[in-house]
Input
Amino acid sequence: MRCPFCEDVDTRVVDSRLGSDGDQVRRRRECQNSKCGMRFTTFESAELAPPTVIKNDGSRQAFDEVRLRKGFKRALEKRPVETEKVNDAIERIRRRMIKSGDREVASNDIGTWVMDELRNLDDVGYIRFASVYRRFQDVNAFREMVEKLEKETMLGNDMQMQLLTGDDQDPLRKEYKKSLAKNSSDES
Ligand SMILES: [Zn+2]
Output
């Protein structure tokens, strides 16, 4: 590390401390050139470049946080979830990606992480995302998922309301209506 004042390469660390969030080390250095002796600060942090995303068709693309945010936005449209909580969720996913240590992450894994986050944020958003993301092979798969959630008593009144009175364009409600139709034709 050259001294930024006299460009001498002989500098010494006189103080070293961890940044408040623990992600960064701050160092005070002193130039050892007797004619200079200036002090300066350096910051050291890990390079946290997000890995490449491998899509289902095998193609690769750079991780796109804007797209991820759009996914959350679509799932949580008109839902009472604070933007701050979505930001936290996105940050946790970003960290999960970095922590995985691989330079490449399957888009499927990211989808699963989004599901994990939505599950904690909002039941409706969770199933809405799942019904699009998993592209349920048939209505039974959707029904099974709803029933599984019901068993786990995750579905509150809120969820019931959304299913019964929600917007017909909502993919969640479309799936629900399909599954009802399927159900009644099974019984007849
Ligand atoms: Zn110097």
Strands lie at 11-18, 24-31, 39-45, 52-54, 60-62, 104-106.
